[in-house]
Amino acid sequence: MSVLLLLTLFTAGFQISDFRLPAPFLAVAESLTNRSIAWPEWEQWKRVLLLQDYNTRVVMTGTGLLGMAAGLVGSFTLLRRRALMGDALSHATLPGVGLAFLLAPYLGLDEKSLSVLLTGAALSGILGVVAILYIRNLTRLKEDAALAIVLSVFFGAGIAILTIVQQVPSGHAAGLESFIYGKTASMIASDAQLIATAGVLSMIIIAVLYKELTLLCFDEGFAGARGYPVFFLDLLLMALVVIVTIIGLQAVGLVLMIALLVIPAAAARFWTHDLKRMMLISSGIGGGGGLAGSAMSAVFPNLPSGAMIVIVCSCLFFLSLLFGRSRGVLVRIARRWDLNRSVDRQHLLRGMYELLEAREPETGSAAIGMPFSQLLAMRTWSSFRLLRQIERCRRAGLLVRHDNARLSLTEAGLAEASRLVHEHRLWELYLITQADVAPARVDQAADTIEHVLEPELIVQLEELLAQQRMSCGVVASPHPTIEQGRMP
Amino acid sequence: MNSSLPLAVNDLTVAWHRKPVIWDVDIEVQPGQLVGVVGPNGAGKSTLLKAIMDLVPKASGRVEIFGQSYRQSRHRVGYVPQRESVDWDFPISVLDVVTMGLYGKIGWCLPVRRKHRDIALRALEQVGMSDLANRQISQLSGGQQQRTFLARALVQDADLYLMDEPFAAVDAATEKAIVEILRDMRKAGKTAIVIHHDLPTVPEYFDAVVLLNMRVVASGPTKDVFTRENLERTYGGRLTLLDEATEAMRRRERTL
């Protein structure tokens, strides 16, 4: 049995060693693994961080502007819910790159010129988008299926073409694989200038058409009714995605380009509810990611810069997710705590009011106060939670603690408590009279809703109930407030 | 051709994938009237408004607004879409939404200026929301969302307003505010065509009604047309056979 297993493993080993990866993958694998990634010398860090090389300066300007443009365009595609279109588009560019390299000599062009390769990339990217639209409109497939088909088929075709390119004897195809994962190290000054020019151009288009694109993304129907060419505006947005994707191919690579279009915009959404600010933050995150990523790539020339840029961007994304000021996780937890605390406070004040109300008028005034144990028995709260809330209310001047651990409401506390009880009972009455909730269960039903009631609703409640019975001051409770069994 | 008629629809048919949504619709709307469009779900009420504004392709028929095509008289038409048609989580403020009604006047590529914001603020005052101008739209209640849309239509200062269910799921205060604005519009000689769901309020709110169930069951002054018999014909589903026939056609189409 074990011999058989060994034999199988042996032959499998043979097969693996016989098997050869397609050339582009080999090249990629080489660029990923073959060269050593030594920790750079201080000298190298300094050269990059102080921007001493002309080439580093140019490349970083280029990728920074690319990131900013991607952040701006990405904000609109995210809001238009077309984020995945960018992914399909970027994957669809690969066959164009290979074909441009193969065909350029026959057309009398320089096959190594970036603009020739990018023109090929743009043409096949656009062909990919057109294919998606055709599949969606002519068959009954949904858009996600169309996206997946186009993305994988074009990418597969691209890999096949690159394999062929690698085997063409005259072709110096090394470097084409940098379009897959991105490699700023192979970028020269004129490439960076092309990226910068196209990036600035798309930023200008966005600034000029900000108003129209916002209208398109927010309310397509209204835009159409007002006579805006919705189809043309969508096309324009798609053209911007094409521009940004194409110029990002070299720095970020087509596999990860979608990250630069989506992550900065999604991260910015955690910080603000204002579109202009969101776009500024998004372009800042994109630009920062571009700069930091290409700097890392200059320090570690063997690492693909696309991965670097994406790693920096996603770090910023997680920071935004946690600390974002308008929707971050921490802010939302804090808001939840705030609500819980205010609910506890309302419970405490209401409980004290109800105890006060239940007390025989002649046996004592509010000044003597009520014992802690009675309050504790009113709800299922721990004494720790109750004590903390009592301390908070004391500091807010709503109640006082006497030496004998008894509590009484201050004047402000009494006013607040009677307001709360009043609102609670209004809501209870509403539920009993209008929603047919049984009086025995109404306390709990009211409790779940009343803490989030808005002032306008209270006014409406008052108006509604005033027609039925006169309520001056605090309404009497529609059910016994303190159950006899629970009284200490 | 009659340039005084705010809206004249002749023989309008709209189809989705060859399934007719509205059929042979003929409507004439007199100036200075509030017109309610009433009908069951799926009767094609929204489609009718969209077809009037060229937002969906017409299979046949003609629409004239003040005697001209929609394209020519677009500036005289204000539109209040259904509230649910947009994402209210979109990161803009109430004022931003209302100024959208002025984009046509501002022109392509030019920024929103102070005077446009002032016009928008006045419209917000009209709908009773001036204190919420800078609020983010994600924080609005349903009624406030509806009033925001109404203010966006008001800034256009149009002569004909098309409103898609402005009374759907709004609070009593908003309903009152909208009715008041509609009556002010009528006083100023404007016309409004309003899709409406709440049958009991129809005679109170509207001068004329269009009862729609794929085709126009009846249209005219409310007191003549809004009768029990007509309502039964509208909601009674007398078109189920037609519906089934078109559905069968569509099924065959899918298998081809």
Global mean pLDDT of chain B:
90
Over the alpha carbons, how many angstroms does the gyration radius of chain A reach? 34 Å
Instruction: Kindly state the percentage of residues in helix of chain B.
Output: 25-40%
Q: Summarize the main sheet of chain A.
A: 3 strands, antiparallel
The structural class of chain A is mainly alpha
Global structural class of chain B:
alpha/beta
Number of strands of chain B: 9
Number of strands of chain A: 3
Strand-residue fraction of chain A? under 5%
What is the N-to-C succession of helices and strands of chain B?
EEEHEHEHHHHEHEHEEHHH
Strand portion of chain B, in percent? Answer: 15-25%
Main-sheet strand order of chain B equals 5-6-7-3-8-9
Helix percent of chain A reads: over 70%
Mean pLDDT of chain A: 82
Largest interface: A-B, 27 and 35 residues
Distance between the termini of chain B: 43 Å
Topology:
The complex is a heterodimer of chains A (488) and B (256).
Chain A: H1 2-18, H2 23-34, H3 42-49, H4 54-79, H5 83-91, H6 94-103, H7 114-138, H8 143-167, H9 178-181, H10 189-208, H11 210-218, H12 220-225, H13 230-252, H14 257-269, H15 275-299, H16 305-323, H17 329-358, E1 370-371, H18 372-378, H19 383-395, E2 399-401, E3 406-409, H20 411-435, H21 442-450, H22 455-466
Antiparallel strand pairs in A: 1-3, 2-3
Helix pairs in contact in A: 4-10, 4-13, 4-14, 4-15, 5-7, 5-8, 5-14, 6-7, 6-8, 7-8, 7-13, 10-13, 13-14, 14-15, 14-16, 15-16, 17-19, 17-20, 20-21, 20-22
Chain B: E1 7-16, E2 19-29, E3 34-38, H1 45-52, E4 60-64, H2 70-73, E5 77-80, H3 94-99, H4 103-106, H5 114-126, H6 142-154, E6 160-163, H7 172-187, E7 191-195, H8 202-205, E8 208-213, E9 215-221, H9 222-225, H10 228-235, H11 240-255
Parallel strand pairs in B: 3-7, 3-8, 5-6, 6-7
Antiparallel strand pairs in B: 1-2, 1-4, 8-9
Helix pairs in contact in B: 5-6, 6-7
